[in-house]
Amino acid sequence: MADNANPIEPIHQFEISNFFTFGTIGGDGTEGSGVEIAFTNSALFMVLTVLVIAGFLILSTRGRGLVPGRMQLLAEMCYEFIANMVRTSAGTEGMRFFPFVFSLFMFILIANLFGMFPYFFTVTSHLIVAVMLALMVFITVVVYGFMRNGFGFFKLFVPSGIPWYVMWLVVPIEFISFLSRPLSHSLRLFGNILAGHIVLKVFGGMVVALLAAGAWAPLAILPFGMAVALTGLEFLVAALQAFVFAVLTCVYLNDAIHPGH
Amino acid sequence: MPHPSCGQKTSYISTVYNEIGLLDTFSGCLYGARDFEGGAPLFHCGSQRAKFGMAQDDKRAETGDLASRISKAQSERISVRAARALRRNEMTGVGRAFRLASEFIAAIIMGAALGFGLDALFGTRPWFLVALLLLGFAAGVLNVVRATSELNRMTADTAKGVPAVTDDEDD
What is the ipTM of this complex? Predict the structure, then answer.
């Protein structure tokens, strides 16, 4: 995946490079100060992800056949899958958030799968992307929870049926538990994708290193087999993490709709 | 079966589709999401009705056969999918571990960060940090217990081969 001087370096694949810059915000005008706003390779792959999703859904549902063709069936299966997930974990009322959950799922899934192509950039391997997605969910939960339940949303921190004298201990614990959600939500996605890609790259690098080591070259088959197996596993992880992110989004939205355990 | 919103008789094939629940989105008249609260339906599928509703009696035998074939294929697919989901749940021990670990660590980090911030605000270092770190541990354990029970429920549901159904009532 890396074509620089050191092909074994596993972190190079996550490097951000600017294609063109729009200018800088802040700073004192000197070189390297302020925040540079640029169209990066990460931004490019986000745009590509959105284009692929939009193209797939628009083209596949254009026929609107009563008996769906292959592509339409695929699109309908995506719809059904997420719709069932939302209904099971957030109730029928949660279908209000179906477009949100569907967008999140498709974006993460396609971005992860894009990352499986050699030389492609993996958008979700950067913490900031995962954190923004998780914060979007978190803020939606908080805002909608207060909108819908008013102060009843605080019932989320007060489990029913506990005596008053342990309340002072339980409420802070529940509060920290609630605040930790966006953290674990984003860390999981980011960590899985990052770790998977690094491990894949390390085994790929071992193949290269062993092939270059003369008499040791036949041993290269071992890390090669590992890399092949891990590639399969990574496809699974890519789909599973998108699924887990969407499921947890539904679970959190359920708390906004029905606070109080 | 006349549809309430357009009053037209729906064709036999759409009735079949509704009975076996193949097209969740197809309500006999409107082609839109069933529970989607977006208001107006997306598309009217009048052209399909015209196409399929023509020779109803001729098609009846054919569609009955088709319906039985569809339901057979569907039940096969569901059992295959349940088996696959079960296997997947058992296989990804690493995913399970990662899930639980991140739940645990996130609560500790959040507790520590909260304590650090409150200490900086009130100048009481290190008391808030110590207290909230401990509470963070407790919250981490709580998170892990919740996540585990949720995972166990998911595994139990896939083992039974039926999707989990929760009640929609406020409780």
Answer: 0.80
